[in-house]
Write a structure and sequence with these properties.
With 150 residues, the protein is α+β, with helices and mostly antiparallel strands. It has one domain. Helices cover 47% and strands 15% of the residues. It has four helices and three strands. A three-stranded antiparallel beta sheet has the order 1-3-2. Helix 1 crosses helix 3, helix 2 packs across helix 3 and helix 3 runs antiparallel to helix 4.
Length: 150
């Protein structure tokens, strides 16, 4: 049986990712007094780390990706992913994928900046990455993995 193919496009603005990075960095500096705070002055450096996270994510979701674009110089829509998937029951991919991708990229950048000083960002990055991959995971019948009976 052939299943209908669906495309979900996720568009994230650079401002949303940077806001997540700067907010987490402000909190981080309150907890770790010696840590450098990330500010808008370091936007270019932050976006380089976000690009690393984008490349990592792209490699992991390549099988589901119809379109991927990273353009830090655009006014908006700096990160684009169009995910393709098919299954018999229509699109059941969870809402909030934009926020999930935003947090995934921000936590990847924070993990790179703060390294082993704190494992929170690495754990958060793994959590968001797993959530995204599970959103597209399907069984042999095309049903979402989380919808399987226990």
């Amino acid at each position: 049986m052939k299943h209908t193919t669906y495309v979900i496009e996720i568009v994230v603005d650079k401002a949303d990712i940077l806001e997540a990075i700067y907010s987490a960095s402000a909190w981080h500096c309150l907890v770790y007094k010696q840590a450098p705070r990330l500010t808008p002055d370091q936007e270019r450096l932050c976006m380089m780390r976000v690009k690393e996270g984008y490349d990592d994510l792209y490699c992991r979701v390549l099988g589901y990706t119809n379109l991927a674009n990273f353009n830090p110089n655009a006014e908006s829509g700096n990160v684009r992913f169009a995910f393709v998937f098919s299954h018999p029951c229509g699109p059941t991919v969870p809402q909030g994928l934009k926020q999930l991708v935003t947090q995934l990229l921000a936590n990847f950048a924070l993990k790179r900046f703060y390294g082993d000083q704190v494992s929170y960002y690495g754990a958060a990055w793994l959590k968001y990455r797993a959530q995204l991959l599970l959103a597209f995971a399907r069984d042999d019948n095309g049903l979402p993995v989380d919808a399987l009976p226990a």
